Amino acid sequence: QVQLQESGPGLVKPSQTLSLTCTVSGGSISSGSYYWSWIRQPAGKGLEWIGRIYTSGITNYNPSLKSRVTMSVDTSKNQFSLKVSSVTAADTAVYYCARGSAQDAFDIWGQGTMVTVSS
Amino acid sequence: DIQMTQSPSSLSASVGDRVTITCRASQGISNYLAWYQQRPGKVPKLLIYAASTLQSGVPSRFSGSGSGTDFTLTISSLQPEDVATYYCQNYNSAPITFGQGTPLEIK
């Protein structure tokens, strides 16, 4: 079955760029009518959707983060990626990648990766 | 943006109780409403999508209803393993939005 796994640095300095990759295994990232999302969750707080990307390259971002977020997809590697620029302590969170669709919502999630913004 | 508001803000109930959590959207979202369960320290798990469709493998004591702006998640007989925070989500139109979450504990 399809599985997702986040990877990337666990510590990022303030003002730098956070970069994460989600690797899709057990199936092709290009199959089906799916989009691929990033969600984050600060410690003790709720879920915040960051954005989504289709394998066509079309993206939608959360307006609250739009100016700092870039998503990309590499179908040859079965991966999609997230970049958040100019990070501050407020970007410290567990970051999840997830598969979504208009039919099934977010049915598959990665295990999450903790990212701390600190000098 | 569509705001999702859950009530109650927290909930405490006894094993075997019927539990209901509501979610209100700030504008109509048809049935593009999902419910997730997040146990402490765990990854969110999809329970219900399309407002009332039970995800495969989810116990039948969970059910969902509603359409438009008002939705409900019901647990027919609360079990100890249901201790978690529950989130509703508008998942079609961007930006996708989550409710603030409802922590559920056992009395």
Which outline of chain A best applies? globular
Number of helices of chain B: 0
Instruction: Provide the succession of SSEs of chain A.
Output: EEEEEEEEEEE
**How many beta-strand segments of chain A?**
11
In angstroms, what is the radius of gyration of chain A?
Answer: 14 Å
Which residues of chain A sit in consecutive blocks of at least 5 with pLDDT less than 50?
none
Distance between the termini of chain A: 39 Å
Number of helices of chain A: 0
What structural class should be given to the helix and strand makeup of chain A?
Answer: mainly beta
Regarding quaternary structure, what we see is: heterodimer
Proportion of residues in extended strands of chain B: over 45%
Percent of residues in helices of chain A comes to under 10%
Topology record:
The complex is a heterodimer of chains A (119) and B (107).
Chain A lengths: L2 E5 L3 E2 L5 E8 L9 E7 L6 E6 L5 E3 L7 E6 L4 E6 L8 E9 L3 E5 L3 E5 L2
Parallel strand pairs in A: 2-11
Antiparallel strand pairs in A: 1-3, 3-8, 4-5, 4-9, 5-6, 7-8, 9-10, 9-11
Chain B lengths: L3 E4 L3 E3 L5 E7 L7 E6 L6 E5 L3 E2 L7 E6 L2 E6 L8 E7 L6 E2 L3 E5 L1
Parallel strand pairs in B: 2-11
Antiparallel strand pairs in B: 1-3, 3-8, 4-5, 4-9, 5-6, 7-8, 9-10, 9-11
